[in-house]
Amino acid sequence: MKALKFYFENTKGTGVLATADSSGKVDAAIYSRPHFLEADQLAFIMRDRLTHQNLTSNPHATFLFIENGPGYKGKRLFLKKVKEEENPELVGKIKRRRYTDDKQEPRFLVYFTLEKQLPLIGDGTD
């Protein structure tokens, strides 16, 4: 997990978090890089929108990360939600972006375990 933390701290790119509800209806949303807060877990900050709602009925998600630059480099992380908390102080401390139109909507810190990691393209056997 340390190598993955180092990768995300030092690599710029675009992330997409994909989820599905209990009936299999899918959603994908742009998300920033994950936060590494606890041993063997990573977390995302999310508002109570479709991605968060999907995770209440189906704990599985996939994070697709495309590195900036030429070609197709990046990672695919297969995740399982293990817990969440509504902790405004911690969220305020770790969030990377500051917006002037930052509404006072509740934000959740959602923790995941990493079930599988693959490169952006291929099955990782190359």
Automatic annotation (TrEMBL):
It comes from the Bacteria. InterPro entries: Split_barrel_FMN-bd. One of its GO terms (molecular function) is pyridoxamine phosphate oxidase activity. This is Pyridoxamine 5'-phosphate oxidase prtoein PdxH. The keyword Oxidoreductase applies. Keywords: Oxidoreductase. Its EC number is 1.4.3.5. It is an enzyme of class 1 (oxidoreductase). It comes from Desulfotignum phosphitoxidans DSM 13687. The lineage of its organism: Bacteria, Pseudomonadati, Thermodesulfobacteriota, Desulfobacteria, Desulfobacterales.
